[in-house]
Amino acid sequence: MVTPGRRAALAALEASERGRRLDLALTHAARGLDPRERRFAHELAYGTARLRGRLDWLIARHLRRGLVRLDPRVRTLLRLGAYQLLHMAVPDYAAVSQVVEMASRHARGLLNAVLRAVARDGEDPALFPDQAADPAGWLASWGAHPRWLIDRWLARWSVEEVSELVRLDNEQPPLTLLPLAGTGEDAIARLAAAGIAAWPLPGTASLAVEPGTDPARALDALRVAIVQDPGASLVVAYAAPDPGAAVADLCAAPGGKALALAAAGSPVLAADRSLARLRLLRMNVARTGLPVALVVARAEQPPIRHAPVVLLDVPCTGTGTLRRHPDARWRLTPEHPAALARVQERMLEGAASVVPAGGLLVYSTCTLEPEENQERVDAFLERHPEFRSEPTDAVDPTHIDVAGRLAVLPWKTGFDGAFAARLRRASA
User: Fold this and answer.
1) Are residues 159 and 185 in the same domain?
2) Which of 366, 407, 420, 421 is catalytic?
3) How far is residue 241's CA from residue 235's CA, in Å, rounded to a whole number?
């Protein structure tokens, strides 16, 4: 009988193939599983998504007509089986037999033969393009990233930088917390009292927590804190609103930045077009007791007339956070950066319309792509001479680019990628 964790991983990956986010798909598929099976399903689904390109390379060696022509379920089952064989402590016979049992009868012979061949050959780097002679081929196959994305990055950065970015993308992300009350030392002491080791991350207000810690347990120990990568926390630090200044966060969900701004002393209006995503923020507002008001609204049509500080954390390709959302790399296409840039343009226009004279507009993303970052800000400033860039010394200068904008690069920091620009409207 197939284990529930394997069935949940298959269901989540199939839903992801149809366009649903893997985290949401897995939450639904793993509902009702006991903790052990849920952990197994999470590792299997996320690991398979993360290393899909590498697994596909190894599988395709044993297929006459390649992966593309396979039935989608057979393709997903081959990936699930290969990941178990190569990256999980699962006996070969169990990995193969369980996957075969989930297939239709006519596909079982193929699955059995290919997976046994994958198990026999292993994951020898010699089976992949030569790293020195064909770095792009190596990074796309062994590095498990779409070739177009690798080519795009190599056009801007060195092979060494892109290799480190790819390596980080293929690691399980660490658990980092942002305490929202008290000092970092106090938070470390409270975590230690709960049996959880934590340590500060230099240049940030964030704490790294020992691997394997249950996030809910850590939050229970701190009470007023959030799970947030330091890259996102640096956006809030860089925003640096005047003490007590009200902030309108126009793309707020899931709400980490809104909560951090409120904890720093700003009353916050958190707006988002998604009621479902705002529900999670509502739960965290109730848990922390921070002053955040919620409203369903689109950034293109803000629900206010003006606000002294407007934060616009726009939807983006998210290429700075692929280690947290490994399925996203396979959904992106070369057309996405330009398409999202058009969405970001409209949101910027909406946000700018409610920034009063002397007010501050903070534009931010979690992508590494210039069309969505530097180019969007430059184009906005060209259209709006009443705004000017206003750098700040609120964050470590190593995170600031030559234009005075926040540019958190994963291979330099180990953090998620992030970008932000502070744009001040001229006083009347």
Assistant:
1) no
2) 366
3) 11
